[in-house]
Specification:
99 residues, mainly alpha, 3 helices, single chain, flat
């Protein structure tokens, strides 16, 4: 197995492990998840997205401008969601949204 293939296989296994960990953590919550559970799940999710973008979409070897734009987008999106949850902006409300 070539070095690049071995690296991608390891990344793939890590992604599967992180997916299972996120699923288990999310499935353990019956109602709206508390902030201490949401933030790690979001961070794990965006770590997975970063690995997919950099390694499986081969952005790691792309021009630096493209990589910086994608890295910044990922960081800002993750930060926006974490702030939204910490300020209760993303939590579901009670009742029907169409009332």
């Amino acid at each position: 197995m070539y070095k690049e293939e071995k690296y991608l296989a390891i990344i793939w296994l890590v992604l599967i492990g992180v997916s299972l960990l996120s699923w288990k953590a999310g499935a353990s919550s019956v109602s709206a998840a508390p902030l201490w559970l949401v933030v790690p799940i979001l961070l794990l999710t965006f770590t997975k997205v970063r690995f997919v973008v950099l390694d499986f979409m081969e952005v790691r070897h792309a021009p630096i401008q493209l990589r910086l734009i994608l890295e910044a987008w990922l960081a800002l999106t993750c930060l926006a969601l974490v702030l939204g949850y910490s300020l209760d902006l993303c939590l579901p409300t009670t009742g029907n949204a169409f009332d």
